[in-house]
Amino acid sequence: MKIALAQLNYHVGNFEANTQKIIDAIRQAEKLQADLVVFSELCVCGYPARDFLEFKDFINQCELAIQTIAAHTHRVAAIVGAPRKNPRPEGKDLFNAAFFLYEGKIQYITDKTLLPTYDVFDEYRYFEPNKNFTTHTFKGHTIAITICEDIWDVAPDTDDDTAHNPLYTVYPLDEVRHQQPQLIINLSASPFSYVQHRERMRVIRANVKRYRAPLIYVNQVGAQTELIFDGGSIAMSATGDVLAQLPFFEECIRLVELKPDAPVTPPLSPEPIPLIHDALILGIRDYFRKLGFQKAILGLSGGIDSAIVLYLATRALGHKNVLSLLMPSGFSSKHSVDDSIALCQNLQSPYHIIPIEDIYRQFLNTLSPYFKDLPFNTAEENIQARIRAVLLMAFSNKFGYILLNTTNKSEAAVGYGTLYGDLCGGLGVLGDVYKTQVYALANYINRKGEIIPHHILTKAPSAELRPNQKDTDTLPPYEILDKILFEYIEKRRSARELIAEGYEPNLVSRVFKMVNTNEWKRFQVPPILRVSPKAFGMGRRMNIEGKYY
Amino acid sequence: MKIALAQLNYHVGNFEANTQKIIDAIRQAEKLQADLVVFSELCVCGYPARDFLEFKDFINQCELAIQTIAAHTHRVAAIVGAPRKNPRPEGKDLFNAAFFLYEGKIQYITDKTLLPTYDVFDEYRYFEPNKNFTTHTFKGHTIAITICEDIWDVAPDTDDDTAHNPLYTVYPLDEVRHQQPQLIINLSASPFSYVQHRERMRVIRANVKRYRAPLIYVNQVGAQTELIFDGGSIAMSATGDVLAQLPFFEECIRLVELKPDAPVTPPLSPEPIPLIHDALILGIRDYFRKLGFQKAILGLSGGIDSAIVLYLATRALGHKNVLSLLMPSGFSSKHSVDDSIALCQNLQSPYHIIPIEDIYRQFLNTLSPYFKDLPFNTAEENIQARIRAVLLMAFSNKFGYILLNTTNKSEAAVGYGTLYGDLCGGLGVLGDVYKTQVYALANYINRKGEIIPHHILTKAPSAELRPNQKDTDTLPPYEILDKILFEYIEKRRSARELIAEGYEPNLVSRVFKMVNTNEWKRFQVPPILRVSPKAFGMGRRMNIEGKYY
Q: FRET label pair with A35: which of A63, A328, B34, B516, CA 20 to 30 Å apart?
């Protein structure tokens, strides 16, 4: 059997564009002489459609799209993901379904069993879990169709029991094992993190081992605000060999022939930093494209974070489509402007230098009857950051730029940033990248020669909001801070546990308290491109007033 | 049997304070000679604890608290809500449990069956549903213990089948019906909306009717950021009479004796506007108290929204603890300042007048090389709103005020507001109150005499960011706008449906498009106090880039 894997980039709710894209892919699969073309989970409406799924009209549009697509399946069969109404009077209103389309109509429907409801996933908010299990026959082959999470729980008695998922009590493929499926198909929408492709390969391999059948895994590609879908779709033989692995972060349609002597390919195993690099570029590009914008603006401070964001934005949008504002105050060092200019020149990207001193003085004058001779503190520091935001947003409003936010994950974690100041922006590019990872990204970007000026990488990080300020005046060194943050955020360890392991008690308490007392700030930051297994945003839902630290 | 209903205000994660409060209530119940004191759902940690529940140490603290509380139950039994670890190796890690404590130890545990996972609720994110059903005996009485949602699905063959909930396939109380419970107890954390108390009474009555037993319903009180819990706990006799109804929005411990001749009381049925009024005051008060702040600041524009927020804040925090800034620009009318002063005088609340003209000119000067002679547009309008935000935040940073946001639900819906300008603030007070409801609130506030100056209620709404601006330059009249918004947001109707019903097609399309294309703005607004069944915030999760309208 010849199967085409259609790894495509969908736009949530854009039924016209998604339907056309799916029909075009069916035509291409026909040309490739495929018997079957497989699409990704909920591709008709895009994933995640979130609360759009609660609108009856939205579901009607999905049904219409399936009918339209079915009409194009006369020569090739297609498996397409879409929500469908729950025909029973009880339970959630919808199923997360895979439609097998052939000969112009719906042949059968398979519903998703395991509904991820953790981290960034809210599937039980919308969907009823499937409880009916069967295989289907197509051109003499017995096929088991599964949707995403359905293959992420493999019974623990296999050789490789690491794919057993204790969250669930059903093994969907065990339920059809007695029907001896000759092919497993999985429609996925599995968002990127820098560990995800390894997890995915491990899980696919565990399924192939246990069920002794080849597995076709088709993932969505493209970014949906916070979530970046990396593609990397896989065809694995019954013996565990990779027959095809589609590229990361790109649309791709590829034909695989399931036959005993099919050529095999070594699995891709890219490193985290290059993956993060590519993911962020796609994340920026899709955010702009799907919102219908072309141009970005950002404040270039002379520090490493804004430098990396400028570089990534030029890669995503084109070097002429990103405008940098250099906005020195009286506390800015000369090198901040010089280094920023050098960077813009390296990238051939436009910039303006707009000193903020006059506006800052005017604010202080206006406030002097109230502030009197109270000492300089964060109030004055934040005024500078906020003036910069007002200028950036003025350009945004006048010329149609989207402002990019440059806050990194370490800063976002401890609240080291000014709300309505440097925490502004339409999209948080580095909000899931720790400061130490930002340095690694910079070295990766400079791997073939200097793009980020050397001095930006070597100087001590500073917000330059008061004389001779350094980040380390307020924060522990980033190597230490990032370690503690990783234990708390990614690994969900407690202060008590870390202290018991020998971390300095005062330091741990201080860091935990900074993280927890800054939930109110993070509530108002832009959406953050997710690249780790635990990012700030929809996947981490904390109580602002919580008193636990 | 004598039962004390303990309707208390908990602080999420503050184990010390919550435990002490529960122990104090047990002592008070002893003094009242109660046999049993009933607390609300998850009271040990506070509801909603959100992702704190994913931290092992947090759950350990809950277990320790239960042990500490149990030691105080020698003379009176207590039913206390807390999460507990799922002892089985599969399924979610936790149960949402009720602990029956007596004679110094845990006597038995009942787990929650129906886990709301919609709107503001995420319970299946954390909890495994109960599948074991039984009653328990205490002092010769057979008791069925349920937790919140467990009573919100009553089998449809009762006289009153309106309490049947099609979301679920289990009726928890039907499962123990054959054991003939003589008393039903429900531990709740049911957030306020202006229709909720009627729903609650209806559901409790339906349970009492079907199961022919009295029902003790204990709800949490107090606000947790967005969610306001209104209390209003109820004891209902087997014949459907209200034996006790605790007040809304206040802590209260009350003894009820279950006996045939117990006195009955008419059910409270307050109207929506007075409820919203009281809810918002509690919402402000608890946000400040739980974060450890005393003082609020806001920008007073001369319009109705900021006037109402000032009034509510003075009621929540004390009139001297709320500072208003009047920040006229060259486009402000004289009445804006005069009306604001009159309001501050009515409320005996402090204010400063800080004109923004000089700072605004300085911004325009700084930007003139780039803006050149491009026409005045939203860029210049927004600069004014953002200057005001910088001034308000400067006061906040210098003196420790929390900024209150004054945006109403109509504005938040259509994006009529400046991000990082008037959309700033720590808490959105009116973000779930439509403009037409804001007028109704003003009339309610003025019911005994003028507090909100008459002229503020009668003048046409205006942002005053350009000459002679009116809201109706950009928006349809609020009576029409609010109707369409209500259909879209609360009732989840589609544009297609509204147009089919005779709404003007262009108007409907324009309003829907405004709502959907402003998700990016709403992503960054402060938490909004929820008073309706469908508020912006955690209960409405939309895709920023979605293209469906």
A: A63
If 0-12 CB within 10 Å is exposed, 13-18 middle and 19+ buried, where does residue A385 land? buried
- pLDDT tens digit string along B126-141? 999 999 999 999 999 9
C-alpha distance from residue B333 to each of A525, B340, B455, B460, B475 (Å): 34, 11, 13, 12, 21
**Given the residues B21, B41, B226, B295, the one annotated as active site:** B41
Structure tokens at B338: 């005069």
**In the predicted model, is pLDDT for residue B115 greater than 70?**
yes
Q: Quick one: pLDDT at residue B164?
A: 84
Tell if the CB–CB gap between B12 and A124 is shorter than 8 Å: no
Compute the average pLDDT of residues B515-535. 97
**DSSP-assigned states of every residue in B429-457:** SSTTS-HHHHHHHHHHHTTTS-SS-HHHH
Could you say which residues of chain A have pLDDT below 70?
157-161
pLDDT of A548 reads 78
**A408: Cα within 13 Å, side-chain hemisphere:** 22
DSSP A219-271: E-EEEETTEEEEB--EEE-TTS-EEEEPPBTS-EEEEEE--TT----PPP---
C-beta separation of A366 from B359 below 8 A: yes
CB-side neighbour CA atoms (13 Å) of B400: 7
Positive/negative CA dihedral, A311, A519, A194, A538: negative
Closest alpha carbon to A314 in A326, A302, A323, A327 = A323
Instruction: Tell me which residue of B47, B54, B63 sits closest to B13, measured CA to CA.
Output: B47
Q: Judge whether A112 counts as a catalytic residue.
A: yes
Distance from CA of B274 to the nearest CA of A (A): 26
Q: CB-based contacts of A433: which residues, under 8 Å, 6+ apart?
A: A276, A280, A408, A409, A441, A531
Q: What is the pLDDT of residues B322-379, one digit of tens each?
A: 999 999 999 988 899 999 999 999 999 999 999 999 999 999 999 999 999 999 999 9
Sheet architecture: strand order including B94-102? B105-111, B94-102, B77-85, B36-38, B2-7, B252-257
Answer whether A523 sits within 8 Å of B523, measured CB to CB: no
For residue B548, give the nearest of A58, A125, A386 by CB distance.
A58
B137's tokens: 């005996």
User: Which domains, and CATH codes, for chain B?
Assistant: 2-260 (3.60.110.10), 276-522 (3.40.50.620)
Residue with tokens 């955690």: B538
Tokens of B439: 């007028």
Closest alpha carbon to B288 in B82, B155, B426, B411: B426
pLDDT 10s digits, B303-328: 999 999 999 999 999 999 999 999 99
The structure tokens listed for B416 are 């009529």
Nearest to B359 among A51, A166, A359 (CB): A359
Annotation marks residue B464 as catalytic: no
Q: B89: how many CB neighbours lie within 10 A of its CB? A: 9
The answer to whether the Cβ–Cβ distance between A55 and B540 falls below 8 Å is no
Q: How far apart are CA B40 and CA B32, in angstroms?
A: 19
> Is the pTM for the entire model greater than 0.90?
yes
* Contact status, residue B435 vs residue B340, Cβ threshold 8 Å: no
Q: Which amino acid is at B248?
A: F
Q: Which amino acid is at B271?
A: E
Q: Model ipTM?
A: 0.96
Q: What is the distance between the alpha carbons of residues A534 and A28, in angstroms, rounded to a whole number?
A: 38
Closest CA to B325 of A481, A450, A369: A369
